[in-house]
């Protein structure tokens, strides 16, 4: 659905960044609509993961386009229009989060940040199609909850690269990181998410295997889940 | 190649960003290491799940409110 709406926009509305910028500066109403239609999906998704819930994401969405609207005369086209907007959104979200932060916010502390051990703990296979094992809504909630355990920079890198499909260079530009840093953080985020999702999908696979009579695989899966962390890992 | 080398290069391998030589080194290692096969496979599934199900559409009412706010701003400028 996302692709088709993007394709639709490409076919019907798409102007180059410089054409769109010129139209925006001239106060062209359609250009503002095009700006919103083209860039609000990624702005919203970035805001949603960083802020954690839809209402706060909507506030960031509005703030981003209002700021862009007010600052468009000063936009010089040194970066892409999208990059510029996503940077505004990222900064707006961080600002909101700082305001929200309370002195005793330890429960909000990320489980996964840029430091620490990356050794895989979960070495249980998932079965062929994890997406068929859960209702779409349940799956989305699970994916969202897993991202919420990451630090803000890991979240931002992961959303822009893997959910919204920006390139490494674009992501680096939005977040003010080097490309190497983007790659390192993306890798760390993916490994952490894999760890978070494995117990869910391994647990979902086990009953299906039991039904098909593959008791040995099921017992193996259950045993692996019960192993103390670290002992399952056979890293050489 | 050892598990730790594979782990470090894993994202680039999954993204197809590695040289053919490194790819085949990783594949040779995977052929004999069940744990790494699982990690590669489940990492690939993780990325693919988020690519398919990770994106949330902007709710229609949120989009309506955004346009309302922008139109107000526009009127106040003119």
Q: Layout of SSEs?
A:
The complex is a heterodimer of chains A (236) and B (78).
Chain A lengths: L1 H11 L4 H9 L3 H23 L2 H18 L9 H20 L35 H13 L3 H12 L4 H8 L3 H33 L3 H12 L10
Chain B lengths: L2 H12 L5 H13 L1 H20 L6 H18 L1
Helix pairs in contact in B: 1-3, 2-3
Structure, explained:
The complex is a heterodimer of chains A (236) and B (78). Chain A is mainly alpha-helical. Helix content of chain A is 67%, strand content 0%. In chain A, α3 packs antiparallel against α4 (54-71), α3 (29-51) packs across α5 and α9 packs across α10 (215-226). Chain B has helices spanning 3-14, 20-32, 34-53, 60-77. In chain B, α2 (20-32) crosses α3. The radius of gyration of chain B is 23 Å and the shape is elongated. The relative contact order of chain B is 0.10. The interface between A and B is large, with 55 and 38 residues.
Structure at a glance:
With about 240 residues, chain A is mostly helical. Chain A is about 65% helix and about 0% strand.
The name of the CATH architecture of chain B is Orthogonal Bundle
**Beta strand count of chain A:** 0
CATH architecture of the largest domain in chain A: Orthogonal Bundle
Largest sheet of chain B: none
Q: Which bin fits the share of residues in helices of chain A?
A: 55-70%
Q: Report the C-alpha radius of gyration of chain A, rounded.
A: 21 Å
Q: Could you name the CATH homologous superfamily of the largest domain in chain A?
A: RNA polymerase sigma factor, region 2, helix turn helix motif
CATH class of chain B: Mainly Alpha
Choose one word for the global shape of chain B.
elongated
Largest interface: A-B, 55 and 38 residues
Number of helices, counting only DSSP H or I runs of 4 residues or more of chain B = 4
CATH topology of chain B: Arc Repressor Mutant, subunit A
Q: What is the beta-strand fraction of chain B?
A: under 5%
Structural class from helices and strands of chain B?
mainly alpha
Percent of residues of chain B in helical segments?
over 70%
Number of structural units classed as domains of chain B: 1
- Report how far the terminal alpha carbons of chain B are from each other: 66 Å
Indicate the low-confidence ranges of chain B by residue numbers.
none
Low-confidence stretches of chain A: 104-108, 206-236
């Amino acid at each position: 659905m996302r692709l088709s709406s993007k394709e639709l926009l490409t076919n019907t509305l798409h102007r180059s960044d410089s054409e769109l910028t010129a139209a925006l500066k001239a106060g062209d109403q359609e250009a503002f609509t095009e700006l919103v239609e083209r860039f609000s999906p990624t702005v919203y998704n970035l805001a949603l993961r960083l802020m954690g819930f839809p209402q706060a994401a909507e506030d960031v969405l509005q703030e981003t386009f209002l700021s862009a609207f007010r600052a468009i005369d000063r936009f010089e086209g040194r970066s892409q229009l999208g990059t510029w907007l996503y940077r505004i959104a990222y900064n707006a979200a961080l600002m909101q989060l700082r305001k929200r932060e309370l002195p005793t916010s330890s429960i909000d502390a990320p489980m996964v940040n840029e430091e620490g051990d990356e050794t895989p703990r979960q070495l249980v296979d998932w079965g062929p199609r994890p997406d068929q094992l859960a209702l779409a809504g349940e799956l989305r909630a699970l994916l969202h909850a897993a991202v919420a355990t990451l630090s803000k920079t890991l979240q931002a890198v992961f959303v822009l690269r893997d959910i919204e499909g920006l390139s490494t260079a674009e992501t680096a530009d939005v977040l003010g990181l080097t490309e190497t840093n983007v790659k390192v953080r993306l890798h760390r985020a993916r490994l952490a998410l894999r760890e978070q999702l494995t117990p869910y999908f391994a647990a979902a696979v086990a009953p299906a295997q039991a039904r098909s009579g593959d008791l040995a695989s099921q017992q193996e899966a259950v045993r692996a889940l019960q192993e103390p962390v670290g002992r399952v890992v056979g890293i050489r | 190649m050892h598990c730790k080398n594979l782990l470090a290069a894993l994202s680039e391998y999954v993204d197809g960003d590695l040289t053919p030589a490194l790819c085949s080194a990783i594949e040779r290692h995977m052929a004999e290491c069940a744990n790494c096969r699982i990690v590669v496979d489940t990492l690939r599934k993780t990325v693919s799940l988020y690519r398919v199900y990770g994106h949330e559409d902007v709710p229609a009412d949120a989009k309506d409110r955004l346009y309302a706010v922008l139109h107000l701003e526009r009127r106040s400028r003119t």
